[in-house]
Amino acid sequence: MKYSPHIDALIEQLQILPGVGPRSAQRMAFSLLQAERASGQKLATRIESAMTHVGHCSVCRNYAEGELCGICSNPKRQVSEQICVVESPADVAAIESTAQFKGRYFVLMGHLSPLDGLGPKEIGLDKLETMLKSQAVSELILATNPTVEGEATAFYIADIAKDLAIKVSRIAHGVPLGGELDSVDGTTLSHSFIGRQSVD
Amino acid sequence: MKYSPHIDALIEQLQILPGVGPRSAQRMAFSLLQAERASGQKLATRIESAMTHVGHCSVCRNYAEGELCGICSNPKRQVSEQICVVESPADVAAIESTAQFKGRYFVLMGHLSPLDGLGPKEIGLDKLETMLKSQAVSELILATNPTVEGEATAFYIADIAKDLAIKVSRIAHGVPLGGELDSVDGTTLSHSFIGRQSVD
Ligand SMILES: [Zn+2]
Ligand SMILES: [Zn+2]
């Protein structure tokens, strides 16, 4: 025992949070104890509520608090024939914040990773395939991450869509706007060349 | 609403934790949702328990789950006539881990900071003075931080103890072991000179 049973237990469990080691867990525990207790109690309640009430949308697999997520329950989005495939709910939020896309999403909640036991079924590709076969889909936009796993996942999904004669596209990768050429890694820069577009 | 009501509320409240901004709060929320729900529920329970059961030791002001902390309830420590004054429970743990000190502590839970409304009473100095007057104390060791506020607090407490003719000492400050002279700031280095000890 380092402090007292409840403090030690709290410090231990705070370390399930990403990026939190023993030292920052200790700092967090003391900060919670030193502030108004009501504020820490509110945090406990909100964690508990999220754990209990947040599930997955039955259509797109995004986080949802009922049967459907906010996007899938929107009649304007329901009629869209564009589906954008992303790895995570955070990606949905990032794309929504651009206000560029008015279609629907399909959230893989990960990417293909056979070594971790994540095959096509684990990332919902059976469900996606059923959707592509049974609904009118004019374009499937692949917005998985530009990582080895994200690219492999995109290729796998592209094959499914092509077999069903559905148009597939991949979001563009390249030098970020405002970025400088010499601060971008070589792989990104070569993607940026391969994906060059005519300016005339 | 960015995600869903419960997720947004969780992301907001996670930001009461020190060093946690919107982006890391979001990452933490998603990590909790993606892992086993039981693990997040356990975190909620442990926060709630700590908020409810952790109070302050009636003797030394350290965190405690009953009337007395683990140190003050230890008969061997109770008879010690040395009291070490520190700013925080984390300082107690740091000193305990050195196994150098077998006396008692007094935890200020802060330092004098008039601008923040922290005067002698707020950091428990009335209680400390009563203790010094009513108990046998052979030495008061001041282990507040070597910051402007910590030094000012140490001076203030030293005055109280001197009025009561109690021996007062201050922990040594200087170049950390394993540190290099030229990587230590000037104030530390001058402390290190002022506090030099004869080696004969
Ligand atoms: Zn949905
Ligand atoms: Zn105590």
TrEMBL record, chains A, B:
<dbReference type="InterPro" id="IPR000093">
    <property type="entry name" value="DNA_Rcmb_RecR"/>
</dbReference>
<keyword id="KW-0234">DNA repair</keyword>
<keyword id="KW-0863">Zinc-finger</keyword>
<dbReference type="InterPro" id="IPR006171">
    <property type="entry name" value="TOPRIM_dom"/>
</dbReference>
<keyword id="KW-0227">DNA damage</keyword>
<dbReference type="Pfam" id="PF02132">
    <property type="entry name" value="RecR_ZnF"/>
</dbReference>
<protein>
    <recommendedName>
        <fullName>Recombination protein RecR</fullName>
    </recommendedName>
</protein>
<keyword id="KW-0862">Zinc</keyword>
<dbReference type="InterPro" id="IPR015967">
    <property type="entry name" value="Rcmb_RecR_Znf"/>
</dbReference>
<dbReference type="Pfam" id="PF13662">
    <property type="entry name" value="Toprim_4"/>
</dbReference>
<keyword id="KW-0479">Metal-binding</keyword>
<comment type="function">
    <text>May play a role in DNA repair. It seems to be involved in an RecBC-independent recombinational process of DNA repair. It may act with RecF and RecO.</text>
</comment>
<dbReference type="Pfam" id="PF21176">
    <property type="entry name" value="RecR_HhH"/>
</dbReference>
<feature type="zinc finger region" description="C4-type">
    <location>
        <begin position="57"/>
        <end position="72"/>
    </location>
</feature>
<keyword id="KW-0233">DNA recombination</keyword>
<comment type="similarity">
    <text>Belongs to the RecR family.</text>
</comment>
<dbReference type="GO" id="GO:0008270">
    <property type="term" value="F:zinc ion binding"/>
</dbReference>
<feature type="domain" description="Toprim">
    <location>
        <begin position="81"/>
        <end position="176"/>
    </location>
</feature>
<dbReference type="Pfam" id="PF21175">
    <property type="entry name" value="RecR_C"/>
</dbReference>
<dbReference type="GO" id="GO:0003677">
    <property type="term" value="F:DNA binding"/>
</dbReference>
<dbReference type="GO" id="GO:0006310">
    <property type="term" value="P:DNA recombination"/>
</dbReference>
<dbReference type="InterPro" id="IPR034137">
    <property type="entry name" value="TOPRIM_RecR"/>
</dbReference>
<dbReference type="InterPro" id="IPR023627">
    <property type="entry name" value="Rcmb_RecR"/>
</dbReference>
<dbReference type="GO" id="GO:0006281">
    <property type="term" value="P:DNA repair"/>
</dbReference>
